[in-house]
Amino acid sequence: MGDAAHATSPHHGAGAGLCIEDSAVMAELLADDAVKSISDVQAVFSTFNEVRKERGQWLVQSSARIGNVYEWRADGVEQDFGKMEQEINKRNNTIGGEDVDVGDMCKQAKTMLRQKLMA
Predict the structure, then answer these.
(1) How far apart are the C-alpha atoms of 108 and 111, rounded to whole Å?
(2) Which candidate among 8, 47, 66, 110 keeps its CA 20 to 30 Å from the CA of 85?
(3) What is the domain count for the chain?
(4) Which structural domain, as residue segments, surrounds residue 41?
(5) pLDDT per residue as tens digits for the range 42-75
């Protein structure tokens, strides 16, 4: 699911980490007791996409941006080492900072799935 699903460049080295997040969310959704039919499984995939797509797409775009930072081609950063460090740290914090909680991601996804299944 990781690098293959996200098709990201290697500049963050985070494809495997997102794969773990994706796998945890997908496993929680598929294991939900309320999932009993094909249409429920379709709701699982729809929910997964809603919950995970933005973060996956962010990683792809951010990795490309960081590649440009490393090559001194990023607009607004160029060859300013202070700005480079700031940009890298900010983006790395989005990937694995204190606010990143896979358990919360799973809970959010399950809540969304239950709402879909009840509708």
Answers:
(1) 5
(2) 8
(3) 1
(4) 2-118
(5) 999 999 999 999 999 999 999 999 999 999 999 9
